[in-house]
Design a protein that fits this description.
With about 260 residues, the protein is α+β, with helices and mostly antiparallel strands. It contains three helices and eight strands; from the N terminus they run ββββαβαβββα.
């Protein structure tokens, strides 16, 4: 009877373990990642025309935050006797598992002291101001345009300013998908630079500027979560507008591929 245990093959008696030099070991660079990555153009997933009953709709995923936007209109407005241009109404909805009260006011870990109603009111008023400047409302008299935005999922690490920039871009794509007359293709940029946190929704206008990077750029809406360095605020605005131009380039590629 063979009593040798063959479940473990130990190899020859003179076998030696493998030794690797220290320089051959591959280092993990994930711990050395740039902490200023929020200034780069984020990777986003975009889909338009997701809601067939709406005149225009969009769906955006960006770093764990999912936003859906729908545009209805222009519809006949029976609330007023006569209005020379279309009215705009923005409604923001959140799912039951999305808690806006835990959102941060800035890039720090400080939680917002605003209530959920105040946060919703801030987002709705900012979107309304941007849409009033973007849509050619005079082309739609006696009409109403309704925009519905749903926050389907929220990344807890995102600040209110970053969330607003994602919502702005979702609304921009929904407006482009609706076929409404717009001044130009809008895009919203976000940046955190030297203590200043900004989101700027802008479009290409017909304004002359000595700086070629800002040539023809018109600000539709600017929201600032924190201004800790007022001296560099102008430079932060310029960097944010450049980031918005990069976002517009990605949006143009997406729209041309449809």
């Amino acid at each position: 009877m063979n009593s040798i245990d063959r479940r473990r093959n130990l190899g020859p008696a003179n076998a030696q373990s493998l030794n690797f030099d220290a320089e051959d070991i591959v280092q993990d660079d994930s711990s050395n990642a740039d902490t200023n990555v929020i200034n780069e153009t984020p990777k986003i997933f975009i889909k338009s025309g997701t809601v067939h009953s709406a005149n225009g709709s969009s769906y955006i995923e960006s770093d764990g935050t999912i936003i859906s936007a729908m545009v209805y209109g222009p519809r006949p407005n029976f609330n007023k006797g006569f209005n020379a241009q279309a009215s705009v109404r923005v409604t923001l909805n959140t799912k039951n598992f999305v808690n806006l009260e835990e959102i941060k006011t800035g890039t720090e870990d400080s939680v917002s002291d605003l209530s959920e109603r105040q946060i919703i009111s801030t987002i709705q008023s900012t979107l309304t101001d941007s849409c009033l400047k973007l849509v050619l409302l005079k082309n739609y008299p006696k009409s109403a345009i309704e925009i519905f935005v749903d926050i389907l999922m929220l990344n807890e690490s995102h600040s209110l300013t970053l969330l607003l920039s994602i919502i702005q871009n979702a609304t921009n794509i929904a407006l482009l998908n609706s076929g409404l007359n717009l001044r130009s293709v809008p895009a919203c940029g976000y940046i955190y630079d030297e203590g200043n946190e900004l989101s700027i929704n802008c479009c290409h206008g017909f304004y002359y500027d000595t700086d070629n990077d800002e040539q023809g750029e018109e600000i539709l809406c600017l929201y600032s979560g924190s201004i800790k360095n007022p001296i560099c605020f102008g430079k932060s605005v310029q960097k944010c507008m450049l980031q918005a131009k990069e976002v517009r380039q990605e949006m143009n590629r997406f729209l041309l591929s449809q």
